[in-house]
Design the sequence.
């Protein structure tokens, strides 16, 4: 096989494993959000107390992203991805054997720690290999949305058909096997590390980089808070809203899956728009549009809430490709994993705050309508802040010759 053919083969496999990894990262960090509905009954502990058990895992999922990104830049993106798959899967299997809340909290923390590898390393890996960043990020985001959608469905189905323990153990086995497949491909030379971008762009000025970093630091934090709060609350939100219709765990899981399937498809459109129009304009529009939708959701109950939440989740995920494109545009290639690590320290590190916010609102009001109104207000602040971003119109860039891998 020629050097160019080897590079193309490695690029294809890298994109494939990156997309699968994105799905897995969300599946494993969200399984507990549906399993908790069964644990309320089995352990006879309230939802507000149980949901707090995921706080440490959510904190590590975000906070550990920065050192994981640094390791991805300094050592190997492929090696870190192998650690992601095998470590996350093993942690999930261990969580399935938890006997009490303390062991559950530790298991969820281990899942969060290993899952934190994906976003800084896997997405930077994707960006380096992509010919069209917006399209690649949208496609990758589609898989992330599929993961969010499948998490509730997998957890609900396995909990109802087998047990809540199976909801952690069986997916964990699949994740470990995926990691072994990537490791074998790496050892065989089928997947290699790319150290430079496949498509080079004219570098942004230092001033624009600093300005973009400051503004994106706040907007990424707010978008992450909104996304995490919505995904955390949605199973309980639907359970409360459909209480009179006799909806069980499987039904709630299926509805959450439907919402995030819609949002994952929407993210493909978000990636297309980020390539076709200035990413800044797309980012502002998608975040501003969440304000009226979340305000409407705060006033709804019953089946009508489901499609409105699908629109809200879709708009949130449609903003992600443009946000990632902006970050890639205003960060140097050699520090790409570190830059995405910083992004996800903010976007995912805010997770514990989102979980505590959901817990506090549910405990104080007995419903989650107030939460949706708060999230709508935060979306408005986000859109106004994004107006301060520098222009992202870059010089035309042609694909560079594939470097030796």
Sequence:
């Amino acid at each position: 096989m020629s050097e160019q053919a080897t590079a193309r083969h490695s690029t294809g496999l890298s994109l494939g494993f990156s997309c699968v990894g994105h799905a897995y990262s969300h599946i494993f960090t969200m399984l507990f959000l549906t399993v908790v509905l069964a644990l309320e009954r089995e352990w006879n502990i309230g939802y507000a107390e149980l949901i707090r058990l995921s706080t440490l895992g959510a904190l590590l999922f975000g906070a550990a992203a920065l050192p994981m990104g640094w390791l991805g830049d300094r050592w190997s993106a492929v090696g870190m991805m192998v650690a992601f798959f095998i470590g996350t899967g093993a942690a999930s299997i261990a969580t399935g054997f938890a006997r009490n809340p303390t062991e559950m909290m530790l298991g969820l923390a281990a899942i969060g720690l290993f899952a934190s590898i994906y976003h800084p390393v896997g997405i930077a890996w994707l960006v380096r290999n992509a010919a069209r960043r917006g399209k690649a990020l949208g496609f990758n985001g589609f898989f992330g949305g599929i993961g969010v959608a499948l998490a509730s469905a997998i957890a609900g189905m396995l909990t109802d058909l087998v047990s809540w323990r199976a909801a952690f153990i069986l997916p964990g086995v699949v994740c470990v096997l995926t990691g072994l497949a990537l490791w074998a491909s790496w050892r065989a030379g089928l997947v290699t590390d790319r150290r430079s971008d496949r498509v080079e762009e004219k570098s942004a000025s230092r001033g624009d980089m600093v300005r973009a970093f400051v503004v994106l630091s706040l907007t990424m934090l707010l978008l992450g808070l909104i996304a995490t709060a919505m995904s955390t609350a949605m199973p309980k939100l639907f359970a409360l809203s459909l209480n009179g219709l006799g909806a069980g765990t499987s039904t709630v899981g299926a509805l959450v899956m439907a919402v995030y399937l819609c949002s994952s498809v929407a993210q493909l459109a978000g990636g297309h728009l980020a390539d076709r129009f200035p990413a800044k304009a797309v980012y502002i529009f998608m975040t501003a549009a969440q304000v009226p939708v979340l305000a409407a959701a705060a006033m709804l109950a019953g089946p009508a809430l489901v499609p409105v939440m699908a629109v809200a989740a879709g708009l949130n995920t449609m903003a992600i490709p443009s946000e990632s494109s902006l970050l890639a545009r205003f960060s140097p290639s050699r520090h790409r994993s570190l830059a995405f690590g910083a992004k996800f320290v903010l976007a995912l590190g805010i997770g514990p705050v989102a979980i505590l916010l959901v817990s506090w609102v549910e405990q104080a009001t007995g419903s989650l309508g107030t939460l949706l109104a708060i999230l709508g207000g935060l979306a408005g602040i986000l859109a106004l802040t994004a107006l301060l971003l520098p222009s992202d119109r870059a010089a035309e860039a042609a694909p560079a010759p594939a470097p030796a891998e």
